[in-house]
Amino acid sequence: MLIVQKYGGTSVGSLERIENVARRVAKARDEGKDLVVVVSAMSGETNKLIEYAHHFSKNPSRREMDILLSSGERVTASLLAIALQEMGYDAIAMTGRQAGIRTDGVHTYARIEAIDTSAIEKQIDAGRIVIVAGFQGINEHGEVTTLGRGGSDLSAVALAGALKADACEIYSDVDGIYTTDPRIEPRARKLETISYDEMLELSSLGAKVLQNRSVELAKKMGVKIIARSSFSDDPGTIITEEDEGMEAVVVSGIALDKNQARVSLRDVVDRPGIASEIFNKLAREQINVDMIIQNASKDGTTNLGFTVPQSELEQAKAALEGFSEDIGGADYDEQICKVSIVGVGMKSHSGVAAKAFSTLAANNINIEMISTSEIKISMVIDEKYGELAVRSLHEAYQLDK
Ligand code: ADP
Ligand code: ASP
Ligand code: MG
Questions:
Q1: How far is the CA of 6 from the centre of ligand 1 (A)?
Q2: Does ligand 1 lie within 6 Å of residue 178's CB atom?
Q3: Could you count the other beta carbons within 10 Å of the beta carbon of residue 293?
Q4: What's the CA gap between 397 and 401, in Å, rounded?
Q5: Ordered structural domains, the chain, with CATH
Q6: Is 24 exposed, middle or buried (0-12, 13-18, 19+ CB in 10 A)?
Q7: Dihedral (C-alpha) 209, 210, 211, 216: value to the nearest 10 degrees?
Q8: Which ligand is nearest to the CA of 227?
């Protein structure tokens, strides 16, 4: 049996914790499993490296950032291999390049294109535990790339898919996927299973427990993910295909995203093609636009609102400067957040949205924007009410039961 295990930043956050991980890996090995272990950088390390770079430059070269950031994962991979060797286990650490992970050329946000598993397979066949530095690969020119924040999850899922592993176990400081972030709502309940689609919505909408691109890839490649804690023996949550039982549950989870900003464009000239020009420009600048709302036109102009990640707001402002002839004025608001409720059961139940709106109304929370899909409802509200909204919605849909 081949298992890919991934240990996140908190799980390897100190030398004692790396030792704890080594013991867990050794135990799985003693049970007879073949193991590929993907590790993150020690918690806080990636942020520290980013700060170091910003000491020298506001806008550091993304190529150099990749070399810098990929070092954090190499530290933990080699330390874990050394710890295992000292315990008498045959282990070998590999960088992304050595593990055969090939990506596209987009520095700091690369996508995995292919994995040449031959080097890893050779080591497994030789009886070794393979430790892979997560979050990194190389592009076709042999340059180091990284996979975006939280990208070690993606490394693990991609390796599990390419190696046809029996499961991909993702270890963090929570023992599974909860109905909402247990740090916000202590009454959140752990789920035994959740569908890929629900998990994808939750992680795209702010639940950072799994990186959204890793869930997307797991669905595509049919990789079974098990979210578990590195500090307990709880069986965790299985993320898998939707089954009939799942649709009986109307709402499975609630996510809160505080890293969004709202852009409101006033008096936009209402002519065919204007929306296409604005959003194409933003897309070319790699800005992720969400929740677009356009008002009915009046006197030949209209108002256009949308959200972008806060980290991309400055870029968005710059991109919009080219439209001064077509746009009357622009307002930007970072003091907002996005609260979302997610569940495959929404497809077959009515009144779900109405309940969300009346719950927020009962708490005097004003809804500024709404967007829905078959399995989610997202609402933009004032940032200071984010936690209150999560807790009241959690109660309204009785998610603690
Ligand atoms: P790692 O550093 O191991 O990658 P993360 O910090 O990325 O771990 O993810 C774990 C965190 O995700 C938890 O500490 C928890 O606060 C947060 N989280 C957010 N939403 C959820 C949820 N629905 N279920 C479980 N954890 C969640
Ligand atoms: N170390 C990287 C980050 O902090 C990748 C990861 O931990 O998954 O984003
Ligand atoms: Mg993470």
A1: 14
A2: yes
A3: 16
A4: 9
A5: 2-173 (3.40.1160.10), 254-396 (3.30.2130.10)
A6: buried
A7: -150
A8: 1
| DSSP track, 306-375 | EEEEGGGHHHHHHHHGGGTTTEEEEEEE-SEEEEEEE-GGGGG-SSHHHHHHHHHHHTTPPP-EEEEETT
Give Cβ neighbours of residue 95 (< 8 Å, ≥ 6 apart): 70, 74, 77, 133, 136
- In single-letter form, the type of residue at position 175 comes to D
Which amino acid appears at position 395 of this protein? E
Is ligand 1 within 6 A of the CB of residue 183? yes
Question: Which helix (H) or strand (E) is 93 found in, with range?
Answer: strand 91-94
- Pocket of ligand 1 contains residue 181 by CB under 6 Å: yes
The residue ranges of DSSP E strands in 182-300, in sequence order, are 193-195, 225-229, 237-240, 253-257, 260-269, 290-294
**Which residues, in sequence order, are CB contacts of 346 under 8 Å at separation 6+?**
250, 251, 352, 374, 375, 376, 377
Residues in the chain: 401
- Asked whether 134 lines ligand 2 (CB < 6 A), one says yes
Per DSSP, the three-state class of 107 is: coil
Element (H, E) at 299: none
- CB atoms inside a 10 Å sphere around CB 258: 15
Each residue's pLDDT, cut to its tens digit, for the chain (401 residues) gives 999 999 999 999 999 999 999 999 999 999 999 999 999 999 999 999 999 999 999 889 999 999 999 999 999 999 999 999 999 999 999 999 999 999 999 999 999 999 999 999 999 999 999 999 999 999 999 999 999 999 999 999 999 999 999 999 999 999 999 999 999 999 999 999 999 999 999 999 999 999 999 999 999 999 999 999 999 999 999 999 988 777 788 899 999 999 999 999 999 999 999 999 999 999 998 899 999 999 888 888 999 999 999 989 999 999 999 898 999 999 999 999 999 999 999 988 889 999 999 999 999 999 999 999 999 999 999 999 999 999 999 999 999 98
